[in-house]
Amino acid sequence: MLDKLSDSLKEAVRKIAMANKIDKHTVDEIVRDIQRALIQADVKISLVKELSERIRERSLKEKMVLNPREHVIKVVYEELMNILGKAIDVPLTAQKIMMVGLHGTGKTSTCAKLARYFQKKGLKPAVICADVYRPAASDQLRQLCDKMGVPFYDGAELPDGKSVVGIVKAGVKEFDKHDVKIIDTAGRHALEEEMIEEIRAIRKEVEPEQRILVLDASIGQQASVQARAFDDAIGITGIIITKMDGTAKGGGALSAVSETNSGIAFVGTGETVNDLEKFESDRFVSRLLGMGDIKSLIEMAEENLTEEDIDADILKGKFTLNDLYNQLEALKKMGPFKKLMEMLPLG
Predict the structure, then answer these.
(1) Torsion angle of the four alpha carbons 254, 5, 64, 18, in this order, in degrees rounded to the nearest 10
(2) How far apart are CA 203 and CA 277, in angstroms?
(3) Which end of the chain is more exposed for a tag (fewer CB within 10 A), N or C?
(4) pLDDT of residue 209
(5) Taking the CB of residue 163, how many other CB atoms lie within 10 A of it?
(6) What is the rounded CA–CA span in Å between residue 316 and residue 298?
(7) Which residues pair with 100 in a beta bridge?
(8) What is the mean pLDDT of residues 217-222?
(9) How many CB atoms are closer than 10 A to CB 96?
């Protein structure tokens, strides 16, 4: 996730840790490295300048409780959190969630990922497909839901199957006893008034508690334009940024969102239904800087591993090649090893 940015920031942290002393020259050199890393990640230049000034001022003038090196690392950590988007929490309660976004952002697959997230948390999700313009959307979402055992509805049996509001209304009624009802709305190739009016009508009809915008990380700073437009239309309550695993511009999308009234709820980190991570700025920055994210690692283990995956013989001090194989197979349930390694602190 944001490998180039992470590598550059880790190098900056290493320079701080290895510095003979922390003075103006050292801080300026570190700030230049951080500036280059953030600009390459498509973070807005005005934000980079603001961050640079804050790091310089706090590093050299702020009263220190830690030693100088630890103090500068702490300052860098805190200032990065300030620009890389605030986090918002989607409660684990009964609710209707309306998903909006442009075509190609990964919105449909994200609906399935979100359903899987709630399913793992012990809730009963259901998905309603209100995209009547792209037949493949309904087929794709139905297949994903079937694999997870999540109920799916697209209004195929309705007399007027093209009425988007009618489909949503019927779907909400159909899944009345389900905890979380996720509504996949139609996307467009650009912000069009027709789409805006459609999502306004859906919001008015079913009054979803959550209205989540799905953004493609590769659009970089353009994320702020979309976020403001959708927020003006229906009042966005949260944002999911997709494709964070395959772009160098993710920093731009994250920081651009921080300029709006919306916060980031989740980030998409892969193609499977399990590749959706709850966004928490402190954990995210910690991983970027190579400080690890043990808390997320523990949560992933609790969600994916069972008692059978933990070999009792190993706990007694016995270990064979078969045990090693079984443990590696168990770890694969938690995702790619590269992703797990990112959550471990650097030595």
Answers:
(1) 170
(2) 26
(3) C
(4) 95
(5) 15
(6) 22
(7) 213
(8) 80
(9) 20
pTM to 2 decimal places: 0.77
Residue of 279, 258, 226, 213 whose CA lies nearest to 43 = 258
Displacement of CA 179 from its chain's centroid (Å) = 22
Burial class (CB in 10 A: 0-12, 13-18, 19+), 59: buried
99, β-bridge pairs: 184, 212
Task: Concatenate the DSSP letters of all residues of 196-240 into one string.
Answer: HHHHHHHHHHH--SEEEEEEEGGGGGGHHHHHHHHHHHH---EEE
pLDDT digits (tens, 9 = 90+) for 273-318: 988 988 887 778 777 776 555 455 555 555 566 656 555 555 566 6
Per-residue pLDDT of 67-122, as tens digits, reads 788 888 888 888 888 877 678 889 999 999 999 988 888 899 999 999 999 999 99
Q: In what order do the strands lie in the sheet with 152-153?
A: 152-153, 125-130, 180-185, 95-100, 210-216, 238-242, 264-268, 276-278
Structural domains of the chain ordered from first start: 3-83 (1.20.120.140), 95-288 (3.40.50.300), 294-342 (no CATH)
- As a whole-number percent, the residues of the chain with pLDDT over 70 amount to 81
Residue type, 193: E
Q: For 11-56, give the secondary structure using H, E and C.
A: HHHHHHHHCCCCCHHHHHHHHHHHHHHHHHCCCCHHHHHHHHHHHH
Mean pLDDT of all residues in the chain? 81
Q: What is the dihedral of CA 285, 291, 295, 298, to 10 degrees?
A: 130
DSSP state of 122: T
Per-residue model confidence (pLDDT) at position 302? 57
d(CA 227, CA 250): 15
